[in-house]
Specification:
This protein is α+β, with helices and mostly antiparallel strands and 584 residues long. The strands form nine sheets. The protein has a five-stranded antiparallel β-sheet. A four-stranded antiparallel β-sheet has the order 4-3-2-35. A four-stranded antiparallel β-sheet has the order 9-10-11-12, with helices on one face. The longest helix is centred in the N-terminal third of the chain and has 19 residues. The two termini are 29 Å apart. 54% of the residues are buried. Bound molecules: heme D (DHE). Heme D binds next to strand 9, strand 15, strand 19, strand 23 and strand 31.
């Protein structure tokens, strides 16, 4: 095993230099100008794959429009939604990338667009051509496609939702008590990304209780406050509501809430447990509040509107993370492009009250602090963490994470030997981990400040994790360009964080999994209920072996490897107790 210093040196090299991989065009990736799509952050942009499958027609032609067949237009739309819409927007009005509306593209012209797509730009546009990602023919098509008006994908309002809504087992036909001997609180819902399924795995015996069909490129699971209903959302915006009380847990209700979605949550305020569910979509830009027993859609609310600072209209602000408040009957909704955090009061949805908080643009993911009062969330393309006081309903702070592209997942809450309760996030763009003080009463001088920066394996980190009973902070790096780094996890000792340069231990997770084929990535640690073991996904290609590796949190030794041919592309894991109680 390499020493941590050696790994860190490799990681630093990997996060500043590009791998020497020679692409299909024979051009070394090192020929790419800096910042051209090779960075983990550039690779981690939304891909509107479901939207790419819709049928579109060429909008009314204008004089001077390039020649394009219906077939080419369809292929261009698919390519645009999958590769470009994440940054430039579905309607091409711009997001983290520049607008590509026809007034601009026509002014620049075909050759300019073609060369821009081929060679990229120092501003962050990937060099799709010289990297070998797109052929000359595909680039020619995309340059012509951008000169034509974009198609508008269909809306998805109440009538469309109702058409897809199915109650497979009515509430009155469901069990009135738990009908199985599963320890539900210690169950893990594991995303099987590319098979569009989840696996329900026992936290003690590691036995797979059920494999359940879900949406396309299934994304996350959340659990109702009582722990009975598991909500799973696919990227195609299909939600499955699974009843864990049934003899064999199964889907009891289903609904599609849009064309592209990433988030689902349920009401957790005392007195409102299991009453409502909410889901947010990327397309159309909206959220929907649903009945907590049946998923019946009750209220659809658009997020289109003004950007918080410039007060310019944005036509497609996507809904990113949603979290349920424990202090008020409210859902906290991150609206990405307008930079607003909405507090959606579900106590009276006929007279819906929404508090709109100005935060920062490009809000993505986040989680609660250990008191569950404050929501800390990343405005990732702005390198900021916004803090919301869920009790008062206001913005508490906006903190520079001093790293590139913070990506906390839900973050990790530690008790720091010097600074008391802190919340941690790692970064996609570099090896730093930011620790932010979260205790305004006990440690007022350190609250809402970045109190310490740690250095982990390298850029490309997505998730950090700990548990209230653990003395460890785990940091993954699944999107790092170096295979050795993506195969490992860094672990810091919490009680040693007061040292000048805290060192970390490297756990060789892929080696422990005994998988030699492919280039599996180690992603997202998740603790069991007791907090004495942490599970990592070894996420390999769809047709290769993947695994879950269970680590003993006390000894940092391998405890168990879960392998099964049904475990295809495991990514996120959600322990029922920790997810419903927001323990992380
Ligand atoms: Fe995720 C959470 C969006 C790619 C695994 N991801 C989230 C959330 C959002 C989001 C908005 C927060 C949900 C919430 O809390 O309500 N994810 C996106 C994207 O837009 C992006 C970048 C690209 C895309 O087109 O989807 C993307 N995500 C990925 C992956 O490639 C990952 C690593 C593997 C996979 O399964 O697809 C991935 N995302 C996850 C996981 C969480 C998540 C495991 C939940 C973490 C948690 O601890 O709660």
């Amino acid at each position: 095993m390499k020493s941590f210093r050696e790994i860190r040196r490799l990681a630093l090299l990997a996060s500043v230099a590009l791998p020497m991989a020679v692409t299909a065009t024979g051009i070394s990736a090192q020929d790419k100008p800096k910042g051209h799509g090779d960075t983990p952050a550039a690779a981690y942009q939304p891909s509107m794959t479901t939207l790419g499958q819709i049928d579109v027609e060429i909008p009314g032609r204008k004089p001077g429009d390039p020649v394009i067949s219906q077939e080419e237009f369809q292929a261009g739309t698919k390519m645009y939604f999958e590769r470009c819409a994440g940054c430039h927007g579905v309607l091409r009005k711009g997001a983290t990338g520049k607008p590509l509306t026809t007034d601009l593209t026509r002014e620049n012209g075909y050759e300019y667009l073609r060369d821009f797509i081929k060679y990229g730009s120092p501003g962050g546009m990937p060099n799709w051509g010289t990297s070998g990602e797109l052929s000359d023919d595909q680039i020619d098509l995309m340059a012509r496609y951008l000169l034509i008006e974009p198609p508008a994908p269909p809306e998805f309002g109440m009538p469309e939702m109702l058409e897809t809504w199915k109650v497979l087992v009515k509430p009155e036909d469901r069990p009135t008590k738990k009908m199985n001997d599963i320890d539900i609180d210690n169950l893990f819902s594991v995303t099987l990304r590319d098979s569009g399924q989840i696996a329900l795995i026992d936290g003690k015996s590691y036995e797979i209780h059920a494999i359940i069909e879900t949406g396309y490129a299934v994304h996350i699971s959340r659990i109702s406050a009582s722990g009975r209903y598991l909500m799973v959302i696919g990227r195609d915006a299909l939600i499955n509501m699974i009843d864990l009380w049934m003899e064999t847990p199964a889907t009891v209700a289903q609904i599609k809430v849009g064309a592209e979605a990433r988030s689902v949550e349920t009401s957790k305020m005392e007195g409102w447990e299991d009453k409502y569910a909410i889901a947010g979509s990327y397309w159309p830009p909206q959220y929907v509040i649903m009945d907590g027993d049946t998923l019946e859609p009750k209220k659809v609310v658009s997020t289109r509107g003004m950007i918080y600072d410039t007060q310019e209209y944005h036509p497609e602000p996507r809904v990113a993370a949603i979290i349920a408040s424990h202090y008020r009957p409210e859902f906290i909704v991150n609206v990405k492009e307008t930079g607003k955090i909405l507090l959606v009061d579900y106590s009276d949805i006929k007279n819906l009250k929404v508090t709109e908080i100005e935060a920062e643009r490009f809000l993505h993911d986040g989680g609660l602090d250990s008191s569950k009062r404050y929501f800390l969330t990343a405005a990732n393309a702005r390198n900021k963490i916004a803090v919301i006081d869920t009790k008062e309903g206001s913005l508490t702070a906006l903190i520079d994470s001093e790293g590139e592209t913070p990506h906390p997942g839900r973050g990790a809450n530690l008790n720091h030997p010097t600074y008391g309760p802190v919340w941690a996030t790692s970064h996609l763009g570099d090896d730093t981990v930011a620790l932010i003080g979260t205790d305004p009463e006990g440690h007022p001088d350190h609250a809402w400040k970045m109190v310490q920066q740690l250095y982990a394996l390298g850029g490309g980190s997505l998730f950090v994790k700990t548990h209230p009973t653990s003395n460890h902070l785990y940091v993954d790096a699944p999107l790092n360009p170096d295979a050795e780094i993506t195969a490992s996890v860094a672990v810091f000792k919490v009680d040693e964080l007061d040292q000048e340069e805290p060192e970390y231990t490297v756990l060789p997770i892929v080696e422990w999994a005994g998988i030699a084929e492919g280039q599996p990535r180690v992603v997202q640690g998740e603790f069991n209920k007791e907090g004495n073991e942490i599970w990592f996904s070894v996420w390999n290609a769809k047709d290769l072996e993947s695994a879950l590796v269970v680590v003993d949190d006390k000894t940092l030794e391998l405890k168990h490897v879960i392998k099964d041919p049904r475990l295809i592309t495991p990514t996120g894991k959600f322990n029922v107790f920790n997810t419903r109680q927001d323990v992380y």
